Amino acid sequence: IMETNPGSEEPAVRPVRTRTRGQAMSGKRLVDNQEVEVWERQRYYPVKGWSTRMLSESFSDKTGTKQEYKECFLLPSADWAWLTEWTIDINPNTDEEGWLYDGDHAEKHWNDFTRRRCWKRVMVKG
């Protein structure tokens, strides 16, 4: 998959950044699963609500310093395949839609003006 950056005709292909999720036995061969993640970010505007307006990047790595889009992750080689679709990471530390407010808590407070949530996908080397 090759996408373009918004507002640009240049390809926006990103190398896959992964974390080893685990290894499983498939018959007699060892299969590697790796998890890829990107973070969606939004800012709150009292009159308009949640929006990506005025953010340098609406999707980024966990630190928020590097632009990354779900659609731009390519498999490292033909030996790899996607095991899952993109899913939102919902856990006890997030709200029911997977959002973390001001980076670290699941409940919005009156003075929270940013939120982010993690999207994950698993790839497998066959």
Total of DSSP H or I helical runs spanning 4+ residues: 0
Give the class from helix and strand content and strand pairing: mainly beta
Q: What is the alpha-carbon Rg in Å?
A: 17 Å
State mean pLDDT (0 to 100 scale). Answer: 76
Order of helices and strands: EEEEEEEE
Alpha carbon gap, first and last residue: 20 Å
The largest β sheet comes out as: 8 strands, antiparallel
| Number of DSSP strand runs | 8
Shape: elongated
β-sheet strand percentage? 35-45%
Helix content: under 10%
Low-confidence stretches: 1-30
Please explain how this structure is put together.
This protein is 0% helix and 40% strand. It has 126 residues and is mainly beta. The chain is built from no helices and eight strands. Strands 1, 2, 3, 4, 5, 6, 7 and 8 form an eight-stranded antiparallel beta sheet that branches.
